[in-house]
Specification:
With 282 residues, the protein is an alpha/beta fold. 29% of the residues lie in helices and 26% in strands. It has one domain: Vaccinia Virus protein VP39 (Rossmann fold, 3-Layer(aba) Sandwich). It has 9 helices and 11 strands. The radius of gyration is 19 Å and the shape is globular.
């Protein structure tokens, strides 16, 4: 039986594990519980907060609402549609289970849901706001607020494909949750990504050897199988350019002067450059 969104109905929290003890979680009356008695409420929007902190939690965790809304506006206009097409090509077949590790507000998860009906989808982000926004727009997937740098709250060998898009990586945990033939698809900005914006507004630079550093980071747990480069031209107005900057780490370096300079732009031409790195367990 399918719901109106075309995704298989009856998707539940199977495969999700307790972030405290690692036991399986089961849902009863919108509460996830494990055999040890740890319990986590499923929020009204449909996500669950599985974040665990040692000591006092930080005041700011993950992307803020303004960043997430900017990302949604920008991506839903289709500016990165070529990147989504490349990702779908790399995913290739309907995987049984797919994890979007660092899902943000859920744009790519939603696109994957439309292209791979029947796949069980999980999204994970350290930002509770991101998990909430994602869950509201794709209730058939399962979204969790969790830290990818700690235990990923999914069972060992339970995932077929992990997508990791402009987000932190945890090779040990990625390897644990992936099945024997599982694949990891990591997308990073390539050298020369948004050169005009970076020059004009003195933005953070992309590391020239970013691919090499990530490959080295993953090398104990993964083999690099293939690298897919992609370039996409952008012709943006002031609103689109502002959203593009707000959805990146440059948001934290935003100033009134940059805001004023950007507002004066009527049209801005630039080039987005990406690399999709496909990894497999050795």
């Amino acid at each position: 039986m399918r719901d109106k969104g075309g995704i298989l109905a009856g998707m539940d929290w199977r495969g999700v594990i307790c972030p405290v003890c690692g036991q399986a979680l089961t849902e009863t009356a919108r509460v996830l519980r494990c055999g040890q008695g740890h319990a986590f409420d499923v929020a009204r929007e449909g996500y669950v907060n599985l974040l665990r902190w040692r000591g006092k939690p930080p005041k700011i965790v993950g992307d803020q609402a303004e960043m997430l809304h900017a990302r949604r506006r920008f991506l839903e206009k289709g500016w990165y549609a070529p990147l989504m097409d490349l990702l779908a090509t790399a995913v290739d077949k309907n995987p049984a289970v797919l994890l979007d590790a660092g899902c943000g507000e859920g744009y790519y998860t939603r696109q994957l849901a439309a292209r791979f009906p029947g796949t069980r989808l999980f999204g994970l982000d350290i930002s509770k706001t991101a998990a909430r926004l994602a869950a509201k727009q794709l209730p058939s997937a399962r979204f969790m607020a969790a830290d990818v740098n700690q235990l990923i709250p999914l069972a060992t060998n339970s995932v077929d494909v992990i997508v990791n898009i402009f987000a932190p990586r945890n090779p040990t945990e990625f390897s644990r949750v992936l099945g024997a033939d599982g694949r990891l698809l990591t997308i990073i900005p390539a050298p020369g990504h948004l050169p005009e914006l970076r020059t004009r507004f003195n933005l953070l630079n992309i590391e020239a050897d970013k691919q090499e550093k990530i490959t080295a980071q993953m090398s104990r747990d993964f083999d690099l199988i293939q690298v897919y480069p992609l370039s996409a031209p952008l012709v943006l107005d002031a609103a689109d350019a502002r959203d593009l900057l707000k959805m990146t780490p440059n948001y934290w370096h935003w100033t009134a002067v940059r805001q004023t300079n950007l507002a004066a732009i009527t049209q801005f031409t630039d080039m987005a450059r990406f690399q999709l790195l496909q990894f497999a367990c050795p």
